[in-house]
Design goal:
Structural class: alpha/beta
Strand order of the largest sheet: 1-2-3-4-5-6-7-8-9-10-11-12-13-14-15-16
Distance between the termini: 93 Å
Radius of gyration: 30 Å
Largest sheet: 16 strands, parallel
Keywords: Leucine-rich repeat, Repeat
Pfam family, one: LRR_14
Protein name: Leucine-rich repeat domain-containing protein
Number of strands: 16
CATH topology of the domain at 305-416: Leucine-rich repeat, LRR (right-handed beta-alpha superhelix)
Mean pLDDT: 90
Number of helices: 5
Strand content: 5-15%
Length: about 425
């Protein structure tokens, strides 16, 4: 047996996942004076990159290296030859400020999670399509403008994170990502939502916050399985009627837009639990917004509302109601029917009289009426035995009234 064959057999033993074989390989190397210094050096470097220290028992160390399932590549780490034999890897993190993804990274057979945020990637290799086992691909904070068509081969992909890039279009092949449940495209500077997004029909979570979208395509209604939709911080001026097709939505975030109205089809979203339209330009709410039986949180702060629909009382499951910084002077009597309300925030409106309907809200824990021109508080407020917070700061209440309120609500934190 020549020395080359000796070395090949020894390396085969060392690369096995069995500690006994590895110990045999080390013994053979010693008895035949076979040089395995390069191999041992590679193992040491890999181990130190993972753990930051070395281990006395080399055989045990080699087993540990070859069976590792997660690895992180930091800046200035030199990848040694043995790295490419880590065929048990499930998760790979790369934070090495790379400008391109070497195709060798697409060859790990069991990889499920590839995490490459905060790098300098401008494109992905077509070989990304070989990573058919991937379930999560994180590419946020790079310089990508699109994805290769081969992305469509990742039929097991469930999460695709593309925030903080420069993406304006996506290949049509993304429609083949039938397992994709989460797509995040925030902060890409998009002025239009790529139509290809509306073809990923099994999407459940779509995040496109902080872009430059003024409208949404009518095809958005194709996403019938969507549960969470975040459109925060876009200059949206309107929503398509087809928004009403998203009947599985549980959370719709429309804050910091330029919406002056909400389409009546909003009433079709009967699964909706959280609706946030604060910091927009709403002048009225459609009556249909009151047809959302599962809504628990409604936030319409910082708009131009002067009244609320009488049907608001139909929202019997609402627990949190935020209507600050509007122009309301009263609440509908039907608010008294919203018996599950725990928080009512009416800060900075134009209430000169106490909204009597809230006195029927026996579960109310926080009532905020600060920055309103209130002059009186009724003694009946003492009925709100669950109240823990009452904010009356910056109102027109006199000292006597303030003293009375403290007497009526001795267990409540009151702010004047």
């Amino acid at each position: 047996m020549d020395k080359l064959t000796d070395k090949e057999n020894i390396l085969r033993l060392l690369r096995s996942r069995d500690q006994g074989n590895i110990e045999l390989g080390l013994a053979l190397a010693e008895s035949t004076s076979t040089d395995i210094q390069s191999f041992v050096g590679d193992i040491n470097q890999l181990y130190q990159a993972k753990h930051g220290f070395s281990k006395a028992d080399l055989a045990e160390k080699i087993v540990d290296i070859y069976t590792m399932e997660e690895f992180t590549i930091h800046k200035n780490v030199v990848l040694v030859e043995e790295f490419w034999n880590l065929d048990q890897l499930i998760t790979l993190h790369i934070s090495a400020l790379i400008e391109r993804l070497p195709i060798e990274f697409t060859s790990f057979p069991k990889l499920k999670e590839l995490d490459i945020p905060d790098n300098h990637l401008t494109c992905l290799p077509s070989e990304i399509g070989n990573m058919v086992g991937l379930t999560t691909l994180r590419l946020n904070n790079n310089k990508l403008t699109t994805l290769p068509p081969e992305i469509g081969k990742l039929r097991n992909l469930e999460n695709l994170i593309l925030d903080e890039n420069q993406i304006s279009s996506l290949p049509g092949e993304v429609a083949s990502l039938t397992q994709l449940r989460c797509l995040s495209l925030g902060r890409n500077g998009m002025t239009e939502l790529p139509l290809e997004v509306t073809e990923i029909i099994n999407l459940e979570r779509l995040y496109i916050e902080e872009n430059q979208l003024k409208t949404l395509p009518s095809q958005i209604g194709n996403l019938a399985y969507l549960k969470e939709f975040d459109l925060t911080h876009n200059p949206l001026e309107s929503l398509p009627e087809e928004i009403g097709h998203l009947t599985n939505l549980t959370e719709l975030l429309l804050r910091y837009n330029k919406l002056q109205s909400i389409p009546r089809t909003i009433g079709n979203l009967t699964s909706l639990r959280r609706l946030n339209v604060n910091n927009s330009q709403l002048t009225h709410l459609p009556d249909e917004i009151c047809d959302l039986p599962n809504l628990t949180e409604l936030d319409i702060d910082y708009n131009e509302l002067t009244s609320l629909p009488d049907e608001i009382g139909n929202l019997s499951n609402l627990t949190e109601f935020y209507v600050t910084h509007n122009k309301l002077t009263s609440l509908p009597d039907e608010v008294a029917q919203m018996i599950n309300l725990e928080i009512v925030d009416l800060e900075d409106n134009q209430f000169s009289e106490f909204p009597m309907a809230v006195l029927e809200l026996s579960n109310l824990k926080a009532l905020r009426l600060n920055k309103n021109p209130l002059k009186t508080i009724p003694s009946e407020i003492s009925r709100l035995q669950s109240l823990k917070e009452l904010n009356l700061f910056d109102t027109l209440l006199d000292k006597e009234t303030k003293a009375n309120v403290k007497t009526w609500l001795p267990n409540c934190q009151i702010y004047f």
